[in-house]
Amino acid sequence: MGIQRKTYTDCQGCSLCLLPCPMWQQHRDVMFSPQGIAKAMQSGATATDVQEQAASCIHCGACDVMCPENIALSSWLEELSEVAGSALNQVVKEPKLNGFVISCDSWVQEGIHADDLYIIDAAPFHADYKRRVEHYTSLRIKTGCSMNLDLNRMAIPTGIGSEAAKQEKFNVCEQIQWLMQGREFARVIVENHDDMEVLRERTDKPVVCISELLPSLHERGEYATR
Questions:
Q1: How far apart are CA 113 and CA 64, in angstroms?
Q2: CB neighbours of 78 closer than 8 A, spacing ≥ 6?
Q3: Residue 91 in contact with residue 28, Cβ under 8 Å?
Q4: Which residues, in sequence order, are bridge partners of residue 209?
Q5: Which end of the chain has fewer CB atoms < 10 Å from its terminal CB, N or C?
Q6: What is the Cα–Cα distance from 32 to 171, expressed in whole angstroms?
């Protein structure tokens, strides 16, 4: 007999999911959080009753990492959004040469500097948290750069490209302003190319995609892929 997957009925209301939650950060209303939606449905609310709240989730996956009950909160919220009638955020597989893979390249690491702000792509980071948090912690120590990690080592997402942002239920500009607040940097490096355009509108500093730091084989003196 297989182990039954935990869901909102197992939520104990510890509030840990609020700490990294972007929609709670913007609304400051517990109903705009996985916990709030779970508790509402435990009390008899239907998917339709929490449609506005569910549609505000940008599916960054930080709540999955924080949940001590190991509830697959982001998957549940995606399913809930579909039931509630709001457009479901498309799940796009990472390309083989993604930002994480590129950041592992020693040549690329030499191009990351202490005055850079490195924007980790939040959703894939949280989906593979244990392995990636070790990598980025090491990268931050090695290069001295700052990253979009909060005090809990969750990646603060921009929200760009999310269904909630497309439906104007999540304010990307407000999120970026909060992400950059109090930070001093000379350049922004992003893993997700979609982040570049909006970030360039919000800062006068150069914004580059990490793929631009990857030297060509000719520059590296290599003529075959490793």
A1: 31
A2: 59, 88, 89
A3: no
A4: 190
A5: N
A6: 14
Burial 23-35 (b: 16+ CB within 10 A, else e): bbbbbeebbbbbb
What pLDDT sits at residue 135? 97
Q: Which domains does the chain have, with CATH numbers?
A: 8-84 (no CATH), 99-214 (3.40.50)
Q: How far apart (Å, rounded) are the C-alpha atoms in residues 7 and 77? A: 10
The whole-angstrom separation of Cα 146 and Cα 116 is 6
200-210 per-residue burial string, b: 16 or more CB within 10 A, e: under 16: eebeeeebebb
Mean pLDDT of successive 10-residue segments in the chain (226 residues)? 72 95 95 96 94 92 94 88 51 70 95 97 95 97 97 95 92 94 96 93 95 72 46
